[in-house]
Amino acid sequence: MKAARVEGTATPVVIRPGASERSWRGTFLSSVDNNHNDDDITSSSLDESVEEMMTFAERKRFLTANNGNEEKAMAQLQAYLEARDEFQGTQLQLEVSYQSLIDSHGRDYYDWMIASETAKEAYNEDKSSAMLPRIMRTHIMEDGKEACDLEGHRILHVLPAQIDPALFSLKTYALAIALYLDRKVSRESVETLTVLLDVRGGAGWANPKAFNLMPFIEETCSILISMFPERMHKTIIYPLPYALTWTLQSIVSSVLDAKTVQKLAILSGQTGVDAPMPRQKLLIHVDEKVASICERERLEAFTI
């Protein structure tokens, strides 16, 4: 049994590794803690269609996530590749329609729009003219480079308080995240990312209570594990009331393996719209400039 770090508190949150995980189109095989050599990647028993479609980096990541078990790894990888292929046609059409957004709003906004509109169509929610709130984003620093943590891992900034279940179903938000992440990481790399999950509310947002965000946090963790094995360097959830850390424990126990638990950090603090960022705790993971741009982008995302 492992303990996730709850920074700013004296007691660790104990999380029991779980088995089942949900994904964007069904259930992928569980990822498990593992250790294997690159030599394990060679085998002659692969499904030919998977072998043709996958990259070397994908093969390595999925094998690593499945303890070198090729049968499980290839089944999980095939499910991912088939699901990915399912949405390619819609995304290609939207890329043409939204091309001008790159110049007017930037590449990241463009990627989110394509992912979110594809998700809306997939669940027949594209009749709504409302935009899916941009709950996940990357940031560009003054030097033109993407924001990274202190170890050089790119940051994904998540603002789940924008989620409004009255506008779109949670499964649509979850699919949008999956499609967005798939656009942000190269299939040719084994890059790992750091997720900053800020649960504070915002002016003009739906602002569900922190407790009601737990299913979204569970779904986000599930997507990272099942669709993007070995992509998560670290997930930092902040600021979470101390009492809710125990609730989080029971929720993530069904989706986090022991290895992933070690990559989770929970920063305690207040969660209101005007609540301050737990800056000193966050600076253990990112520098001052990155913390500042995350806070600035959060404030600029307010709608009133």
List its salient traits.
single chain; 304 residues; alpha/beta; Phosphatidylinositol Transfer Protein Sec14p; 12 helices; 7 strands; 41% helix; globular; disordered N terminus
Mind sketching the topology for me?
Blueprint: E1 2-7, E2 13-15, H1 48-53, H2 56-65, H3 70-86, H4 88-97, H5 101-105, H6 107-122, E3 136-137, E4 155-158, H7 170-184, E5 193-198, H8 214-226, E6 232-240, H9 242-252, H10 258-261, E7 264-268, H11 279-282, H12 288-300
Parallel strand pairs: 1-7, 4-5, 5-6, 6-7
Antiparallel strand pairs: 1-2, 3-4
Protein model, in words:
This protein has a single domain, classed as CRAL-TRIO lipid binding domain (Phosphatidylinositol Transfer Protein Sec14p, 3-Layer(aba) Sandwich), CATH 3.40.525. It contains 12 helices and 7 strands. The chain has helices at 48-53, 56-65, 70-86, 88-97, 101-105, 107-122, 170-184, 214-226, 242-252, 258-261, 279-282, 288-300, and strands at residues 2-7, 13-15, 136-137, 155-158, 193-198, 232-240, 264-268. A 7-stranded mixed sheet has the order 2-1-7-6-5-4-3. The longest helix is centred in the first third of the chain and has 17 residues, at 70-86. Residues 1-45 have low confidence and may be disordered.
Tell me the name of the CATH homologous superfamily.
CRAL-TRIO lipid binding domain
Strand content: 5-15%
Annotation, overall tally of beta strands? 7
CATH level 1 class label: Alpha Beta
Kindly report the spatial arrangement of strands forming the biggest sheet. Answer: 2-1-7-6-5-4-3
Domain CRAL-TRIO: 119-304
Protein name: CRAL-TRIO domain-containing protein
InterPro entries: CRAL-TRIO_dom, CRAL-TRIO_dom_sf
